[in-house]
């Protein structure tokens, strides 16, 4: 039986039974808005995402407020949502960021490295290795406090300044993040240039370098419409953590060619069709993205949000 607004479920071989969605709309999405979204709207957004069944909701970043002014209200936002019964990871680039996050009781943090020198410089004002050195005390202190650490790696497939990124270059930085003690990695296609064969090649190379698949998540931006195909390739490889952004919000202020992340609704539609459990109520999620699109004053780029909400184009 197919309920209205849901795909027919037809399972396929070789896929996981369950996927954990790491929702990044409130961080990756809102960090890229031209104007800062009011703190109370962000808090309501996160509450609605939790109400839709998302259990990992990246809330904000404790970065330098001049670098990302859109998230300068992290201290005001976090206490407003800390009571939610969900995981609320936050980005911390350095010890100053970790101090700020720990002071508010954050239990999950993420450092964010780059596979390329150009993006490391643009995003963190550091070389790749200087950035890794900056993360080291962050990871060790977080681990000593029993805080879960995610290690993002940007530009895993291509870089706007350097072009295609060789797989071994990516593997080296992933290995460094794992050796440092990160509990999980998120492989970022920051500018959305990956294609499925490339995804499989990187995952295979990481396994060969003793980075096990359960420690890996994928983070696809959808610039060239490849994010769902890339996700399916990752699922076939055994990946069960997928980053996505409600309504397809997103981008990166320090990588101009980045567009929004894979839309959570588009992901949930595909997973639901494959019979893969996510715990997400698609109708509630679409309603949340429509509500947020109203606040932002433009329609959601998600195909699924548009189809299910009959938004004006
Ligand atoms: P810097 O200018 O080199 O900083 O920036 P610094 O270490 O020289 O410190 C300068 C001043 O900033 C000092 O103050 C520090 O205390 C202060 P002073 O002593 O001069 O008064 N400071 C801070 N203040 C508040 N919070 C902090 C902090 N750190 C230093 N955490 C820095 C280096 C890392 C701080 C800067 O480059 C930065 O904040 N970068 C963040 C960029 C960012 O957030 N980018 C977007 C997220 S990454 C992304 O979107 C990709 C991802 O989605 C995956 C993908 O798609 O690929 C994750
Ligand atoms: Mg991103």
Q: What low-confidence regions span 5 or more consecutive residues with pLDDT below 50?
A: none
> What is the average of the pLDDT values?
95
Strand content: 5-15%
Spatial order of strands in the largest sheet: 2-1-11-10-9-6-5-4-3
Integer tally of domains: 1
The DSSP helix count reads: 12
Here the CATH topology equals: TIM Barrel
| C-alpha end-to-end distance | 30 Å
Number of strands: 11
Compute the CA-based radius of gyration. 18 Å
Ligand inventory reads:
3-hydroxy-3-methylglutaryl-coenzyme A, magnesium ion
What is the annotated CATH architecture? Alpha-Beta Barrel
CATH class category label: Alpha Beta
Largest sheet: 9 strands, parallel
Please give a structural write-up.
The protein contains twelve helices and eleven strands. The protein is an alpha/beta fold. The protein has one domain: TIM Barrel. The longest helix is centred in the middle third of the chain and has 17 residues, at 128-144. The mean pLDDT is 95. The structure holds 3-hydroxy-3-methylglutaryl-coenzyme A (HMG) and magnesium ion. 3-hydroxy-3-methylglutaryl-coenzyme A (HMG) binds at residues 28, 31, 61-64, 67-68, 91, 93-94, 96-97, 100, 112, 123-125, 152, 154, 188, 190, 219, 221, 252, 254. Keywords: Lyase, Metal-binding. This is Hydroxymethylglutaryl-CoA lyase. GO terms for molecular function: lyase activity.
């Amino acid at each position: 039986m197919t309920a209205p607004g849901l795909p027919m479920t037809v399972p396929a071989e070789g896929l996981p039974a369950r996927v954990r969605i790491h929702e990044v709309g409130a961080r990756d999405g809102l960090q890229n808005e031209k104007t800062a979204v009011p703190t109370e709207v962000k808090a309501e957004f996160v509450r609605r995402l939790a109400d839709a069944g998302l259990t990992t909701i990246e809330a904000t970043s404790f970065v330098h407020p001049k670098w990302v002014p859109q998230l300068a209200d992290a201290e005001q936002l976090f206490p407003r949502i800390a009571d939610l019964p969900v995981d609320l990871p936050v980005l911390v680039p350095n010890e100053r960021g970790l101090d700020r996050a720990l002071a508010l009781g954050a239990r999950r943090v993420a450092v964010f490295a780059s596979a390329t020198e150009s993006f490391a410089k643009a995003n963190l004002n550091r070389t790749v290795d200087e950035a890794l050195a900056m993360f080291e005390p962050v990871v060790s202190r977080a681990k000593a406090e029993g805080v879960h650490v995610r290690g993002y790696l940007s530009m895993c497939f291509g870089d706007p300044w350097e072009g295609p990124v060789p797989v071994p270059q990516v593997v080296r930085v992933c290995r460094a993040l794992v050796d440092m003690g990160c509990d999980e990695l998120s492989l970022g296609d920051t500018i959305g240039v990956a294609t499925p064969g490339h995804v499989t090649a990187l995952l295979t190379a990481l396994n060969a370098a003793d980075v096990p698949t359960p420690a890996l998540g994928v983070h696809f931006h959808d610039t060239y419409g490849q994010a769902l195909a890339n996700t399916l390739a990752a699922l076939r490889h055994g990946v069960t953590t997928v980053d996505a952004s409600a309504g397809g919000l997103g981008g990166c202020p320090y990588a101009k060619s980045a567009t929004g992340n894979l839309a959570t609704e588009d992901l949930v539609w595909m997973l639901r069709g494959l019979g893969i459990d996510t715990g997400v109520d698609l109708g509630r999620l679409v309603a949340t993205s429509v509500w947020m699109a109203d606040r932002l004053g433009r329609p959601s780029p998600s195909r699924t949000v548009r189809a299910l909400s009959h938004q004006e184009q």
